[in-house]
Design goal:
The protein is α+β, with helices and mostly antiparallel strands and 477 residues long. It has helices spanning 2-16, 70-78, 139-150, 162-171, 218-231, 249-256, 310-320, 364-377, 394-404, 441-453, 457-461, 464-472, and strands at residues 27-32, 36-43, 81-86, 92-99, 130-133, 174-180, 186-193, 201-209, 238-244, 260-269, 287-295, 301-304, 324-327, 341-347, 352-359, 382-388, 407-415, 418-426. The strands form four sheets. Strands 5-6-7-8-9-11-10 form a seven-stranded mixed β-sheet, sandwiched between helices. Strands 14-15-16-18-17 form a five-stranded mixed β-sheet. The longest helix is centred in the first third of the chain and has 15 residues, at 2-16. The radius of gyration is 26 Å and the shape is elongated.
C-alpha cells in the first residue's frame, strides 16, 4: 500500500506537472516517525491545490467506472495522512504519513476534495475566454498561470503563495482581473496593487498570459475589465507600471492604454527571470524596468525642482500632461523637523529596496547614509530613494544624496509623499545600457539622460584597463 501510494504521487507529478526544467530535480526522502514512517516528496512542477482536484467517487457498477481523481483517492486510502505544503518558489512538498499502530484509523481529511468541477484544459476558442474580477477561489489558478509562463523565476515570489493571494483578493489589497476558460482555467491575469492602505495611486502589475494563448487578445480583454473598475473608483488618482526592458512587448501594451514613461529603475530585477515564448529574452545580467504612469484624476500642484534636473523634469511633466507650477526653492531648511520620517520597503527575492522620505529631519542625510550602508552590507543591489518635489527643501538636499552615489532615475506623481523625485543607487552592479530596450522615443531620451547622470557609466563602459590588469596575472609583490 505504501509503495502504491508513493507511485501514485509520482505518477501525478510526472503526468500532470506539465514540465520540469532540465536543472530541476525530484527529491524523495524516507524517514521514521514516532508512530511509523513518513515519505517526503519535494518537486518543482506546476503549483497544485488538492482542494481543486476532481473528487473520486467509487462506482457502483462497471458502467460508472471513471479514473479522474483516483490517484489522490488511493493515496488517501493507503496512507494515514497526505499533506501538501506550498513552498513558494521552492516548489511543492508532499508528505505521505503511515502510522504502524493505527492501521485502522480513519483517513485524515486535511486535503479533502471540495470541488467536483473538472477544469477544461483543451478549449482553444478565444471567444470563450471571459475577463472578470477575480475571487479568492481563483488564486491557485492564477499561480498556475504564472508558473506556465515564468516557471519559478517570477520577480515577486509571493505570487506563488496562493493562500496569501486568496487573502489579498478577499481583503481587496489587490484587485485582480482574470481571463478564464469556461471550465475555470485562468489563461491570463493582471492586477491593480495597493502597496499601502493610504495609497492614492495603484501599480499595474502581475500581468502574464498562458503561453498557449499569447498574442490572441487576452490582455486586451483583461485591460477593458480593469479600466471599467477604475472608472467606478473615486479614490484612485493614477496608476503606474514597471515594464521589463529586456524586450518591449509589455511596454507596447502599456502605451496602447495611455501609459507614458517617466523613469527607469536600473538593475532592479534578478537575471534569472524569464518568459517562455520571448525569443530575445536574454538574461545574462540583472533586468532594468521602465516606469510608466497614467493620471486618472488631474490636479494642479506647486513643485520645487533641483536645478541640475529641472529641464528634464519639466519635459516629463509636459509629456505626462500634468499641470504643475514650478517655484523657486527656499535657500534655508525651513521645512525640517527634529526627526526624519522615513519608510523602507524591501523585496528580498530581487535584492531591491525603496526609501521614502516622508519628512526631513535635521540629520536626514546621516540617516539615509546609515540605511544605505545597511542595505549594501545585506547585499541589496538596486536602491531607490523617493524625495518629495512638493517640499521646498528637496532641491537643496539632492546634491548631498548625489555625493553618496545616488543619481537621477525619474519622477513618480501622486505617491504617498506627493509628486516624487526618484534617485537610484547601484550596489556593485554594472549596467550595460546598450542592452536596455525602450519602446518610446521619450523613454529612449530619458535613458540617455540617466546614463549621463550615472557616476559609473563612463567607467563601466571602458573595461580595457580592468581586462589588461586581469590578463597580466603573476604573483603579487
Amino acid at each position: 500500500e505504501i509503495e502504491l501510494a508513493c507511485e501514485e504521487a509520482l505518477v501525478n507529478i510526472i503526468e500532470h506537472g506539465e514540465h520540469f526544467d532540465e536543472k530541476d530535480s525530484l527529491e524523495i526522502e524516507c524517514m521514521p516517525s514516532e508512530k511509523g514512517m513518513e515519505i517526503i516528496i519535494h518537486e518543482r512542477g506546476i503549483p497544485f491545490n488538492p482542494q481543486n482536484a476532481s473528487k473520486y467517487t467509487p462506482p457502483k457498477t462497471l458502467e460508472e467506472m471513471m479514473t479522474q481523481g483516483l490517484g489522490l483517492f488511493l493515496m488517501q486510502q493507503f496512507m494515514d495522512s497526505v499533506v501538501y505544503n506550498n513552498l513558494g518558489p521552492e516548489g511543492l512538498e508532499i508528505r505521505l504519513i503511515k502510522n504502524w499502530e493505527s492501521d485502522e484509523q480513519k483517513l485524515c481529511h486535511a486535503v479533502s476534495m471540495i470541488d467536483d468541477n473538472e477544469l477544461s484544459v483543451t478549449a482553444q476558442d478565444i471567444d470563450n475566454i471571459k475577463a472578470r474580477i477575480a475571487v479568492p477561489g481563483d488564486a491557485i489558478e492564477i499561480v498556475r498561470c504564472a508558473y506556465r509562463l515564468h516557471g519559478y523565476t517570477f520577480w515577486d515570489s509571493t505570487i506563488y503563495d496562493y493562500q496569501k493571494l486568496a487573502k489579498d483578493i478577499s481583503e481587496r489589497t489587490i484587485i485582480s482581473v482574470v481571463a478564464v476558460l469556461p471550465g475555470g482555467r485562468v489563461v491570463g491575469h493582471a492586477a491593480w496593487l495597493y502597496h499601502r492602505p493610504e495609497d492614492t495611486i495603484v501599480e499595474a502589475t502581475y500581468g502574464f498570459v498562458d503561453p498557449a494563448y499569447l498574442n490572441q487578445g487576452v490582455l486586451k480583454k483583461i485591460a477593458i475589465e480593469q479600466w471599467n473598475y477604475l472608472e467606478t473608483s473615486n479614490t484612485i488618482k493614477g496608476s503606474y507600471s514597471l515594464a521589463v526592458t529586456n524586450h518591449v512587448y509589455s511596454q507596447k501594451i502599456l502605451h496602447q492604454y495611455g501609459f507614458k514613461d517617466c523613469g527607469v529603475r536600473l538593475a532592479s530585477t534578478i537575471e534569472s527571470w524569464k518568459s517562455k515564448g520571448v525569443t530575445n529574452d536574454f538574461n545574462n545580467e540583472r533586468i532594468s524596468d521602465i516606469v510608466s504612469y497614467i493620471p486618472l484624476r488631474k490636479q494642479s500642484q506647486a513643485l520645487f525642482l533641483p536645478v541640475r534636473h529641472a529641464d528634464m523634469i519639466t519635459r516629463l511633466y509636459s509629456y505626462l500632461g500634468l499641470d504643475r507650477e514650478f517655484l523657486e526653492a527656499e535657500p534655508c531648511r525651513s521645512s525640517f523637523s527634529h526627526q526624519s520620517d522615513l519608510t523602507l520597503d524591501k523585496i528580498d527575492h530581487d535584492k531591491d529596496a525603496e526609501i521614502f522620505v516622508v519628512s526631513y529631519g535635521d540629520n536626514v542625510v546621516t540617516e539615509i547614509r546609515k540605511i544605505l550602508r545597511g542595505l549594501c552590507v545585506d547585499g541589496y543591489v538596486s536602491i531607490l530613494l523617493f524625495l518629495s518635489l512638493e517640499n521646498p527643501s528637496t532641491p537643496g538636499l539632492v546634491p548631498a544624496f548625489e555625493e553618496m552615489g545616488f543619481f537621477f532615475s525619474g519622477i513618480l506623481p501622486m505617491t504617498l509623499i506627493g509628486d516624487a523625485l526618484m534617485l537610484q543607487y547601484l550596489n556593485n552592479s554594472r549596467v550595460d545600457y546598450s542592452k536596455i530596450q525602450i519602446y518610446s522615443e521619450t523613454g529612449k531620451r530619458l535613458l540617455k539622460y540617466i546614463q549621463s547622470c550615472d557616476p559609473w557609466a563612463e567607467v563601466d563602459g571602458d573595461q580595457t584597463i580592468f581586462e589588461s590588469c586581469s590578463a597580466s596575472g603573476g604573483e603579487p609583490r
